[in-house]
Amino acid sequence: xERIEYDEFGLFHxxxxxxxxxxxxxxxxxxxxxxxxxGRRISSLVWGESDPELVLIHGGSQNAxxxxxxxxxxxxxLLAIDLPGHGHxxxxxxxxxxxxxxxxxxxxxxxxxxxxxxAVVGMSLGGSTALAIASRSPELVRRLVLVDVTPGTxxxxxxxxxxxxxxxxxxxxxxxxxxxxxxxxxxxSASSLRRGILHNAIQRDDGRWVWRHARSGKKxxxxxxxxxxxxDVISTLKMPVMLVRGMLPQSLVNDADEAELLRRLPSxxxxxxxxxxxxxxxxxxVELAQLIADFVY
Length: 297
What we know:
Layout (H helix, E strand, L loop, with lengths): L11 H8 L9 E9 L2 E8 L6 E4 L10 H7 L3 E4 L17 H15 L5 E5 L1 H12 L7 E4 L11 H7 L8 H11 L5 H11 E3 L5 E3 L19 H4 L6 E6 L8 H10 L4 E5 L6 H4 L1 H12 L1
Parallel strand pairs: 3-4, 3-5, 5-6, 6-9, 9-10
Antiparallel strand pairs: 1-2, 2-4, 7-8
Helix pairs in contact: 2-11, 3-4, 6-7
């Protein structure tokens, strides 16, 4: 049985090399956990040595490392959060959490670790979570960036993603999980997908691989959360909002979603990213970082 060594903070040079970023030394990153209730913690990556200026929230079935290249390109102190049951965060509750459940946990982490952040950036399920936080505690969301998500997103459009997430519960070898991931992400480099798997899967004692978000035997929380009620939240937002939309067919935001966002919030800024699908942070991380920096700073 082959064991693959994993150094959580030992892959940043690969991100830099693949996307042409300068790399003189590893970035300063540490993992921090916040207890949201006795025995249950939310884990996050804290980038930099100053108070976080940005909060990044990943999508369903992902983890905080999905933002690594974006964080390196930004070069700002920031907080990247693992949603409950994802990455290194403890599983949420006994039942499938709602968006409000996720928001309550993530809000606690933001209030503890990044209460003065200039903006919250949320992708997919993370965007829905950020919207709920903006409604509950707008003082924590001074600016809001939604990455390929609106409250209407994914209704009947996420077949490829759900097929991938609902695949085998475990894999006999690393090559098996890598081959399947490549098949569902033909536009990504094998090296970036390999990094993503090392961050997002664990090798059990029997040698088989399982996704971190499925380690408890539950499916991804994101499949069971209907965020459509958040359209009403959109209409009430007072902070600046930017939607970043991938323009490849894999994007889950369509023209109707974009039009509805602008109808409810005419002040919203909308940016289209050519060559990006749903995971803009993976497909075009440097371009996304530039958009975030322009919007926030």
